[in-house]
């Protein structure tokens, strides 16, 4: 096993100590897992995962390595991996616990629970296609450590004490933890079980150690969570370890060092890596079992079932409701009953008890077996309501009011004061608590230890009397069996199918003749698993019965066993026309508090007994070369019996390039031994015919193949038969087709009752074809590839077309000209090869490559077509076959770079038979995309060699400073190497540095301030003087624009005593020194992204021990402090630098350590924030190093407090900023309040810019969140005021230096800004009588982005043209006049440098129209809705319509009116949308309007689930959103160039996605999240999205988040979401494409009603 896999198995093994069958594992034993015994088990297709249970543990075994790693790290579940052969060995008995055989275990596979019993330790059982065996050992402790001092053989030296109980740690396997001390001290791996210890009790965990005589004593040291970057915490007898934050997890792993509180101490110190197994939240929430007792009123005739609580799994259904794990996790005990009629006095009494009926803790015999005592004194109190703490629950328990209607339940002793009204412990543990009504009630359980103990655990749960109908009773719920009349033999079969009016079960007869008259016995009964109400009764009626015919139907009593609900009928089931029909009826009571109703389910069924006939099928079908008998290729068909089924014929295709094979080949059809045996037993005959025969009349003698074509192989029951035919199979118009016929006698019942045998036939049709191998470019992805030095190639072409025999590619590079930069790799393949489901992609590539090697002889490239003689003379150096027929993603991908520019190049390919194929490939220049070049600048120093070397290993012994030991490693790329010459000690003279880089990276080095020169690993000499000065290494990425500097320092042993080296100080780079003092500086980022700490590596690099270490922080230091652990305490010693070899697994060297700086804390213990200042002084070896500290404490915060006002119809930009001082990228996401109502065009870019053109004035509140990666840093709420577009307000919105120099006048010639003279030196230039008018800004022409009119983007070329001057925009007068009478706003956007992400500037003005526009709006849109490509005017439309009455395809604001809109014909091109389907009209509407266009020209895929891509694209189309403005936006989680990309960016920026989420490219979206997005869209369109009053009552409201609940309320109110029935909204379900077409149809109707 892999190391981490061993570790997890060992941890699992230790966890099992307290289960009914304890489990643990040792590393060595798991490393040498014995092979699974050969049991002869026949496995089915293996399941993806299987879960087995032992005690409280559920262990899942599967194939997901990522999940296994996550399970090991986060301890949220137990997940392990199958072996390569699909088997798994379950570890048992590693600690001497008894494992008794036979041993029974439970497994969960495919939703079903199965039990398997292992008879012995060598036994194995199959579950889900996997073989499970046991991994046992007989070794164990000699005595129970709980009974006294731990035996020497099991002693770890560590124990824990909790509440007076001592828990010894036991050995465990090495689990590969990263330890926190970098000094080498001995390590011990161990585990301890703290089951039964609750969260409050885990606050005080005392670590103990054993003395030499086995006595316990408290220890002092440091601890932290394993593998975390947290600073270790000091513990001792008075300051115990607090594990309460980890309560509820299955386990937690700690690292403990018993160093007495001194981090540099190594003598007598042990590092423990201990796995502590805890009481998981899952089990904590099952501490109670519940039962419900229904007590009917005396006057109520309904008889109710009494639930006694003995079997809570059946008496009360448990449902875990969703909720915040840190607040309320509701556990629902739901009881099902026919009726609880409050009006008649019925009662539903809830009873609770500790869930100890099947305690998983039991009486374990192994170590730490004293857990039953910990549970024996556990008790609980129950309160009405939900509370976070016991104190809240007790405070809310008010004194009771007298309730004369509440009967005594025997829970209180006479004379004692009544319990508070909110406290119902005595009721639920006595006679029961009356639930009163059919509604969910919520409770809080508080658990305590002993009668007077403090609360140790609190959790919330709910209970409800659930009145549900039966949701499922169908033929699948029936178990049908058929026997011979005497019941002695069971017939095979039992499956069936739905006939017209009933379900028919099929069985196979034993006697092929007598069965026609013989009677058989049908035994049928309901299976378990009816959902919903389970308290009804079954009965059976003759015939197919329904509710309408029930009263007249005949009820069956004979053969009916009411106790088991089993019907036994003996009859003749052989004749279809007379086989009896019956109906199962399930009848039950259901209702409300006021009334009960009778409900019924009907399942009509019949059965038929038929003869067991022989079905023909081919075992294998192969094609051989005629005469020689060599097998032809059958590419990628691991099962040659698999043929494509085509209209009753199995088609097999084979491939060849040999002309002789197309004239004649040999077909072999093999029938397997099982089939041959059945035919022999049946007594029929086998024959074969040329051509298709489907009936007896088609069997012509002239077509029959001679018997000599059949051969037999094998003996006894293993005889197979093979049909061999030589024929011409290469004729595409006349392929080889054959029919194999099995003829037998079939018994038939005549009208007079006599049985007659008649001939019968079964037919197998096989067509065999030989197809020619051909050569083609491997253009599945339509790509050429850029040559690289790696095995994986990057595609670089963006377009592809074929012109005759020429393949033309448009490259993603602007210049495809010759030279290295213009060369590309093309790849070819042999056609006829298609992947089989049994092959992986890698295997497929391998098969294609092998085929090419055998079929292709030569390939050449040139300016012309090579002749056969030229190919014959082609040299090996010019034969590019191997390079052309590699795979761009395979292992042999060297490729053949070719310049395809200009006229292109001709590739000539010759196969082994001399056939020539020609392909011309040429490239055309791309114009919009920059080269796709890597920006990776990775560089890692690996050591140094004594001489030139081509490898990366060092000739000198080296130690590389670890990234975790110094924050400057990642922050400023400091890499430090400690070198030794193992032969002479210190290194001197020249060295040859070795390093790794990313592919295509060029490395440059500068030593002693020299000019940088390009270097290669192990090839360039460096003068080494041991000065400690860093060398500058620069790594230049392939892109040519990305460069990263690294500071690399080599140091070796100093002779003559101790020598202090402080990384980043001794070797400080010039840029990291104070300009005034020359003092080294450290820039500290003490925030969440950097783990709130900063580490400084230091070492003794002298040849003698250092004994005078000291560290001090200056008194004037601000916002920074020394860490309690990583510092220098009473021990001030570091060993001499004599070796680079580690002496322990995870410690480093004895001469190295580190200092950690952390944020200072205020008097409340909170981190201080702000700028860091002060100095750090480190002393050692007689030297003093002083470091100046700067930087920022605590995580970055948003520092923008307010937003400037926005103006209606004027471009708006406001940048949200943080105080981030690191080079980490901060991104922003929309929070609450988005989208801004009615302002769908205003959004938030990921760089923090709030941008857009507002449409609706008002005051709006929303929040913005800052993120680093997926870590949320800060969130702030803002209020944005959008003011009206008054003349002065709009004019003053123009930015300085972007003034309007020529403005548009009002229609009457006046101006909205007074005199036009100061903005139009050519008075009278702009007049509405002209065809065009000029709008000119002083803003630079290169910065112009767009111009909008009334919030609608104008189209260049249609609405305006532009030219340089300053920025001169010539506007079409008809565009300006197309709006209605009144004020209109023009706004132009500019961006510095023309970059859409740079600073925005604007120029804006108003103008006034006196009359309504009467002309077409072209592409700009107009009228009441206007917009983009929506058309306009009062009478005509654009592409999709606009205005109040105009049409286009969809119409505008009043879409659906008869004026200006032609009704949509209900027609679609989709073949999978039947015209009689319920969704036909909705799909047709969506298609005709261009909202949903299908997945292809003829396919809509109505039942496929939709994802966010479909939603945002459709909503953008419905809103006529101009998506072109989002085309250049880049988000890491949105792939550019996809059909949904622009819409995804639009939805992200405008806040249409659920709050704080990012766009998901793949996977279906839940109905709940879709509801949130639709409501956000309504809000963006200005609709009221507040929750209506009173709200609707949803049946599954408890499954919804608050946002989902609010959204469903709004959509239900508007009639958009109608639910799935019975007020169920199904928030967790998905939506199909046809359902979505109906939703958007209703949404569109609502939008047009406004």
Task: Quickly list its features.
six-stranded mixed sheet, 88 strands, 1650 residues
Would you mind describing this structure in some detail?
- The chain has 1650 residues and is mainly β.
- The protein is built from 22 helices and 88 strands.
- The strands form 22 sheets. Strands 11-12-18-17-15-16 form a six-stranded mixed beta sheet, covered by helices on one side. Strands 57-58-64-63-60-61 form a six-stranded mixed beta sheet. The protein has a five-stranded mixed beta sheet with strand order 3-2-1-5-6.
- Strand 2, helix 3 and strand 3 (78-81) form a beta-alpha-beta unit.
- Helix 17 crosses helix 22 and helix 18 (1508-1518) crosses helix 19.
- The longest helix is centred in the C-terminal third of the chain and has 17 residues, at 1633-1649.
- The chain is globular.
Quick gist of this model?
This protein is mainly beta and 1650 residues long. The protein is built from 22 helices and 88 strands. The N terminus is likely disordered.
Structural class: mainly beta
Q: Unreliable runs, pLDDT <50, ≥5 residues?
A: 1-44, 137-155, 297-345, 357-373, 399-420, 632-641, 789-794, 813-819, 833-841, 1414-1465
Number of DSSP E strands: 88
Please state roughly what percent of the residues sit in beta strands, choosing from under 5%, 5-15%, 15-25%, 25-35%, 35-45% or over 45%. Answer: 25-35%
Strand arrangement within the widest β-sheet reads 11-12-18-17-15-16
Helix proportion of residues, in percent?
A: 10-25%
**CA distance, first residue to last residue:** 66 Å
Largest beta-sheet details = 6 strands, mixed
Mean pLDDT across residues? 75
Cα shape: globular
Total number of helices: 22
Radius of gyration, taken over Cα atoms and rounded to an integer in Å: 41 Å
